[in-house]
Design a protein that fits this description.
With about 300 residues, the chain is an all-alpha fold. The protein has one domain: Orthogonal Bundle (Ribonucleotide Reductase, subunit A), CATH 1.10.620. α2 runs antiparallel to α3. The longest helix has about 30 residues. The chain is globular and about 55 Å long. The structure holds fe (ii) ion (2 copies). One fe (ii) ion binds next to α6.
Length: about 300
Amino acid sequence: MIPAESSVSSLIGIPTQRPTAWWLETLRKRAERMYGERLDLSKPVEFDSEEERLACVKFFNAAYRAEESGKAGAHRLAEEVRAWDPDLAECLVLYGNEEGWHRELLDEFLAHIGGGVTEMGWMVTSFYKTYAKAERMESIMLTNLMFETIGATTYRLSLRRVKQPLARQVLTILTRDESFHVPLNVHFIREILKHHPERSRARLKAIYQMVFHSLVLLSLGSRKVARDFDRISWKELTSAYIENLGRLFVNEPDLDFAPPRHLLAAFGMSRGSLRNADGVDAISVAAAEAAARREDVNVTPL
Ligand SMILES: [Fe+2]
Ligand SMILES: [Fe+2]
């Protein structure tokens, strides 16, 4: 069911812990139904202006690139992980397939609105180049997790104002699935670190800080090209990025990643306020498990 615009919360579920067997079983069930879900392409999408259509093409191009790199990263990692944990490798393959399916949906949608896959801007290109160069599994997974987080945040916020039914269908599918992928990526990071306890946490923490700052910059850059479509102000988007990226690890002391204080302070937040936000603990378990079952997911306020 597609939610009413005013009822969509910008908060996304924060990680919860489950064993690999749970993730694998859940991913297998999701895979059985995945290709049965189709976009309703029976009607043309009507835009208020050409500017809005072009901004929509840009918006979903950014999403397309994220799906593409998510799929490639997951399948690459699956090959590395297979030797020591075949079940985890299978989870990575199924997860990558979900991103591949998203990419196919976006391909169809972009063609339907007279767009297509276009060249990326310099900021996004340099971002993906850095990501593609990441060699260590845990670095790739951490970066990917942060991408998933901002993806889920942007889609969820967009649902507040985007009116076209088909665009809302795509956004609803992406919001629902990326919200499930966030805790799944946390599981991948935990398992990889368990297998490689010698790997430097300091290095990972530095990556967390670097990616956090880059994504905040990216949120500012995206306003120029996508705002005519999603109607999200820079302040709204940037503070939602900071809040959701900050909340990601606030209740995960074993991973010990702390969001940058100066960015939190600039948007009136603190580590304490993120930790104590209303209902956060209730969200963590409920959201991951609810998002796991596609058939009864409802993208409602968390
Ligand atoms: Fe995706
Ligand atoms: Fe995802």
